[in-house]
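Hi, here's the filled form for the chain we discussed.

Project: internal
Contact: R.S.
Residues: 302
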Amino acid sequence: MYLRHFGFKQAPFTLTPNTEFYFGLPPHQEALQVLSTALLTGEGFIKVTGEVGTGKTLICRKLMNDMPDGFYCAYLPNPFLEPDELRWALAKELGLEPSSDTDRQQLSGLIQQQLLALAAKGLHIVLVLDEAQALPDQSLEALRLFTNLETETRKLIQVVLFGQPELDARLAAPAFRQLRQRITFSYCLRPLTANETRDYIHHRLTVAGNQSQGLFSPKVSQQVHVAARGIPRLINVICHKALLVCFGEGGHKVSPKHIKAAAFDTEDASPAGGQFWRWLAIFGCASLGLAVVSAWLGGYQL
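And the returned structure, exactly as it came back:
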């Protein structure tokens, strides 16, 4: 609804992880370097954890898009699967189509044969699981058993786990000590610094097509950083809402008032305290609602 107003070709702060907006900030680039090194050395388990909204899914997609030649990637975006469901999902990702009456032992045998066949072609098989903290305990153990499959020189399958900090807490339990010892490479994503937040905002604005360097001033970017605590997803939400408020007022430059209003209207954000700013934020939220209504009535296209 504000694209033409600010000169955007596309929405700059969508929540969908889009690799077109990938910026290569230090924490994300370091995570990818760890993943690349681990894959090339053939390790069985690799783990990347981070708080909600820190960019795990974006890194996951970037990893799969840039997978080196010679790697075969199987991807499970929703691993809330019991062990048998996990085996069927992996079989499908490996290109198998077992009959419905295939039992567990037969299915495991088919998976092993397929892994051997792919390895014979010189392929390294990588299983990538997003939201791995949702894996049931028995499914985590099933994954560990899959990494027991190997030739005389290397593992038949490598497993990359992307998950929230709850995954680390679960793996710390004594029951998972065998799996824990097989995770030879891991990385924990951190929030962005103030300077990284500023650069992140301007990068997304540029990719989206905005040529103005003054839309988000350094002071405003600092406010976004504080309100979002450096978490990219919250940065996107706050910036999007601030642009809505600015658009609703007919402005062309985001102000501190717009950030206050956007932060106050955003779950899990951390707006600055103070009764004056609280009332200003409430007023800004009303402006936010009016901006949305005005956009609909004016027929603007998002």
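Let me know if anything looks off before we file it.
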